[in-house]
Write a structure and sequence with these properties.
Shape: globular
Helix content: 40-55%
Number of strands: 7
Order of helices and strands: HHEHEHEHHEHHHHHEEHHE
Structural class: alpha/beta
Largest sheet: 4 strands, parallel
Strand content: 5-15%
Oligomer: single chain
Number of helices: 13
């Protein structure tokens, strides 16, 4: 990631001076980056970051030299897997679906501060095995420059240890830049909300199980159905162990607090009769519960 800082500064300059041109320049540099990789297998979650990485690979390489792989586990919502499949079909690239076994890893099940490290290790090892078997040269993730700046991302270290390539981060492309490129290319993920894995909804120290993950998924689906008429975009159900916190877009908070059906819907999803609080959505809010996030980088 040596070139990221210089490239990022150039993108910032172009944004300020030539706002209509900088995104095209960033997109061109991203495509050029992929021409250096050879046959490329993209770890594809279906979010905007990995979508842009996959679309760039398709623009840079021959169709036979690009493929996507999506992990399937109890921590991945079924709707995300279906959306990933449809996106790949639209690009005309092969889409592999692989079961990952992070639940077999004690460090993951225990859900300590390094949970994401164990999860990403399992994912990249599984993707790497497929890449080797199919003759792909590079494994790519959708890590962007905003992820590097976020501070607490143990999974990034796990991927780096396994030599996964991170073209978005290497070029200094932050989240707004990635979304801008997705918009230029007409990708339907351009405005897609962030969708971290279901395990990220469970407070550190609360053991992870398929049942806990399933009830989070069901609770979020139920809450979204109730709040969709109010224009909710970001929504999380946080399992705190001794309580449940619903996080929604700030303009929707008061409406959610006033909705008497939400608590019942969340209980019906499998949560016990524990206190429900409603707060504004904050990405990575579970990390705020750690005494010293820097310790676990």
């Amino acid at each position: 990631m040596n070139s990221g800082a210089d490239t990022s500064r150039s993108f910032q300059y172009c944004r300020a001076v030539r706002p209509d041109e900088w995104a095209w320049g960033a997109a061109d540099q991203l495509v050029a980056e992929f021409t250096r990789y050879g046959k490329t297998l993209v770890a594809f979650s279906g979010g905007v970051d990995s979508s842009v990485a996959l679309a760039a690979a398709v623009r840079a390489l021959e169709p036979a030299d690009v493929a996507a792989v999506t992990a399937v586990s109890a921590a991945v919502p079924a709707a995300e897997v279906a959306a990933a499949r449809d996106f790949c079909a639209g690009l005309g690239v092969a889409h592999h679906v692989l079961g990952t076994r992070e639940m077999d890893v004690e460090g993951y099940r225990e859900n300590g501060p390094r949970r994401c490290y164990f999860c990403k290790s399992t994912l990249i090892d599984t993707v790497r095995e497929l890449a080797d078997r199919l003759g792909f040269d590079a494994v790519v993730t959708g890590t962007n420059a905003s992820d590097l700046a976020a501070g607490f991302r143990p999974g990034i270290a796990a991927a780096a240890e396994r030599a996964a390539r991170t073209p978005l981060a290497d070029l200094g492309l932050d989240k707004p830049a990635v979304r801008a490129i997705a918009g230029l290319w007409g990708l339907d993920t351009a405005a897609k909300p962030a969708a971290a894995c279901l395990a990220s909804r469970i407070a550190y120290g609360v053991p992870i199980s398929p049942a806990r993950l399933a009830r989070v998924e069901l609770a979020e689906l139920a809450a979204r159905r109730l709040l969709d008429p109010h224009g909710v975009v970001d929504l999380r159900v946080r399992d705190l162990g001794d309580g449940v916190r619903l996080e929604v877009d700030a303009p929707v908070v008061e409406r959610a607090r006033a909705d008497k059906g939400l608590a019942a819907a969340i209980r019906a999803a499998g949560f016990p009769d524990v206190p429900l609080t409603v707060e504004a959505f904050r990405s990575g809010s579970m990390n705020e519960l750690l005494d010293d996030p820097d310790r676990w980088r």
